[in-house]
Fold:
Amino acid sequence: MKETDRARVVVVGAGFAGLHAVRRLAKARIRVLWVDGRNYHCFLPLLYQVATAGLEPQEIAYPARSILRRFPTAEFRLAHVVGGDPAARTLVTAAGERIGYDRLIIAAGGAAEDFGVAGARDSAFRLYDLEDARLLRNHMLRVLEEAEALEDPAARAALLTFVIVGGGPTGVEMAGALAEFRTHVVPRDYRKVTAEAVRIVLLEAGPELLPPFTPRLRERARRDLVGRRVDVRSGARVTRITPDAVELATGETISARTTVWAAGIRAAPVTADLGLATGKSGRVRVDPTLRVPGYPEVFAAGDVAIVDGAERLPQVAQVAIQQGEHAAANVLRGLRGEPCLPFQYRDKGSMATIGRSHAVAMIGRFQVTGRPAWFLWLAVHLVMLIGFRNRLVVLVNWAWSYLTYDFGLRAIVGTEPERTAGNARATDTDRRQTRVG
Ligand SMILES: Cc1cc2nc3c(=O)[nH]c(=O)nc-3n(C[C@H](O)[C@H](O)[C@H](O)COP(=O)(O)OP(=O)(O)OC[C@H]3O[C@@H](n4cnc5c(N)ncnc54)[C@H](O)[C@@H]3O)c2cc1C
Structure:
């Protein structure tokens, strides 16, 4: 029997890298076990639209089992990997199950990096999965309800200040979407809360927003945000976050009941659990073929990996997609007895939207702004979404918002108590501990 017939490949992670790795292997009729702690692929680039009530959570999620319907050699396992022994080729799940493999692709993505800023973990909201987006949306809607019932202007001002930390694409897109919400939804839904009373502050520690973009596009994004009354501050380093305020290195304190942390990313904690060598932000070190040094049967791809010699590759969807496919292709080569090939990134461009009819895009030498960039952004995101039904629903939602200036339904769904300093959302580590214990 050939090795390609009996080998079992395990892929950890149902994000962009894992999805594309699994598809590639399954198309080659390799036995694949796809493992993820949640049962769906989540389209993270549209998470901020869920957080701002533009889209519903299920519109950007697609069940892993539906993706595998067409692939008889691939199976899915709902399990959270909490450890393993690469030397013995086994993984251990939170339920205590041991999963053996012949080849492993780690595609577990990332989690928020707090850079040691006090309170960033407990007092700020992050945006890394659907639960984060749901909690943030509920909190925002509750804060607006509370402000509507308040008479004291100072207390109302703090309630209505939304601070976003991090001027990368996530922070910029979140600020743009909140500004839209303020302009088009607040005046319609609320009687006492006015759009003018809602303050949005975007803080970036570096000198400029959107560091990967050209100076012209960075400046354009800044102008578009300022034009939408977002208070954009560069060189603004946050030193502490509490449930009621954000403190800056300059000594300034901004009273705010909502702080969104969009400042950085580190590798998913599973990298430490597996005891593999890690680099910057806990990412698994891989050689240029995406193989983990010392373990020729283990590969890593996407946000979780850092490639020797290509450390500056951005943690974006295209890198994850291409690395997932490449890791799978190298697994197939290895099974056929052929040498692995080095990964080469083909940059297809970058884009960020700043709300309705405003976006910046960089495609090769071309720089696009304004409405054309926005339509391009819409088209690219629709094409990348998984599932025809999701594409259709998102398209209808966007068309509806465009024509009516209205957002999605703004129901507060869920029973979690309102967030206070003492009961801030569970961190990734808390969730893992809950699962294990
Ligand atoms: C809010 C936000 C907006 C973004 N916007 C853009 C954008 O506009 N354009 C762009 O190109 N990129 C964007 N990105 C970045 C892009 O989404 C990531 O680079 C990409 O998702 C990385 O893919 P991945 O497969 O490596 O990881 P992920 O997509 O994060 O997937 C990782 C998967 O691993 C699973 N997992 C983690 N740990 C375990 C474990 N221990 N056991 C089992 N399963 C586990 C997770 O549940 C998850 O499903 C954005 C990211 C965020 C968070």
Observations:
- Residues 12-18, 35-38, 44-45, 47-48, 80-81, 107-110, 127-128, 169-170, 268, 270, 302-304, 315-318, 320 surround flavin-adenine dinucleotide (CB under 6 Å).
- Confidence is low (pLDDT under 50) at residues 420-437.
- Residues 125-263+349-431 form a domain with the FAD/NAD(P)-binding domain fold (CATH 3.50.50.100).
